[in-house]
Structure formats: structure tokens, C-alpha cells
Amino acid sequence: MSRPPFLELPACAGAYRLATGRGEFAVHDARPDGPVRGTVLLVPGFTGSKEDFLPLLAPLAAAGYRAVAVDGRGQYESPGPRAEQAYAQAELAQDIAAQAAALDAGPVHLLGHSLGGLLARAAVLDDAAPYRSLTLMSSGPAAVAPEQRARAKMLIDALTTMSMEAVWQAMRELDPPEAAGETTPPEIAEFLHRRWLGTVPEQLIGTARQIAGEPDRVAALAAVPLPKHVLSGAVDYAWPVPLMDEMAERLGARRTVITGAEHSPNVERPAETAAALVSFWNEAGDGAGQGDAQ
Length: 294
Hints:
By secondary structure, this protein is α/β, with parallel strands linked by helices. The chain is built from eleven helices and eight strands. Strands 1-2-4-3-5-6-7-8 form an eight-stranded mixed sheet, sandwiched between helices. Helix 1 packs across helix 11 and helix 2 (89-102) packs across helix 3 (115-126). The relative contact order is 0.17.
């Protein structure tokens, strides 16, 4: 999971519930002081939340982009039903389209991190019209690596028989090797715990099945005439970096590898990540006129 280095919203951002045709979603919305070059919708990953994008909000707004990070349905501060079918990929993809429409900014630059990349891909494949570009951040062509599929299955099994608190404690014992030795500030550790307990168990079960069973849909995505960007760290435990290199080639996408980052370049190297994103979005089209009323 992404571990934000801080929890304070930058001065350019506000927190509220975005009303859409498919319900309300908790968001962080960062806006430039001057003209808006474009609007970006940021979709978090498995066990994640809008807070995973906090380090990107200020630099994106400073570059002229309105950046909106969202909690998906049943994810942390967004409500969701206690029914696994509510978290089918098609349902979550329609949520993304509804969020994009509710921003009232014309086509948005869509970015999905990890699981969020799979959901963003599904949204684009369903209907590309609401989007100006697609960025897949630390998200691969199909299911996660075998050891992560096994972890997802263990989580599904645990969530059917254990409390969220008990599963949280068990998951801490299964953190990836690269997390060993990390020191997490108490306020961040408390937030991660609170976020976990605030997430609907069926959301975790449904999305765990997705990351463990996702088919390769790269060929279909390559046929969509939309600017694409594959961005990752130099190391990734969920999808091997060479696999993302190959996916970018198959997509004809821009490829960015953030040196010094692993699965979460958004929090591990936010300045470099923001610069790469802005460069891509500037090239993909600045969306002149969109968001003038924002």
C-alpha cells in the first residue's frame, strides 16, 4: 500500500464529497491560482485512498492542473454497500465515468495507480469520450505477480472468517520484504490503520479477486485512440518492471521509470513523478478552455 509522508492538505486543495449520478465520493480537489490547463482525476490502488496522492497535489496545481484524488466506493471515506457484486470491475469503471462527468471540466486526464490502473483501463475501454489521456502508474497488463496473487487469495480467505482488525494485524506480518525496516511516523501509522478499518470488507474482497484474476487487455486498450503513459518506479513487487516496459511498447505509450521509486512513485518521488506527469499532459493536449469556470 502507499504510505503518504504527510496528511495535511496543501493550501491549494479542499476536501469534500463529490456528488455524482452514482452517489457521493470523498475527494481532495487541488486548483491552480491561475488559468486551468487541464483537469486530472486520480484513482488510488488496492487498500489505498485519495491520501496517496497528497504529495502530488501542490506540484500539479502549480503547473496549472486541477487535480482531484478520489476514494472509490467503499474505500475509506466513500460509502459503499456490504455486497461483493457492488465492487465488480464494470461497476467501479462506471463510477469513474460518473466522477469525471461530475467535475464538469470536459474530458479529464485519467490516472490510475496499481489496482486503480486496471479500473481506469476498464473505464476507458467502456467509453473513452470522458478522458483526454490515460496514465497507468505501477499497474501492469494483467494479474499481479504470482506471490501477490497468493497474498490476495489469503486476504480473501481471511476476510470471510476474521474481523477487519484481526486481518490488519495478520497483514502486517505479510508486508513485502522492501517494507522491512521502514519507520512509519505514529500519525501515519494511525491513519493507515483507520483507513483499513474504514474500508468495506466486500470492497477488498472484490478488488482482490480482480488483481488476482485480471486478464491481459492490452491489445484492446492499444486500439483506443487516446494518449497513453506507463509510469512506474525502478522496482515493483506487484508487476515486474520489464513487464510494464513491454506493456508500454504494446500500447505505443510514453514510458517513464522514476529512479529511486518502487511501487508508489506518487509518495516515494513525488517531485519527479509530478514533473513526468505534467510533461506528458502538456504534450497530450492542454485542454484549452476546459475548467474555465472552476
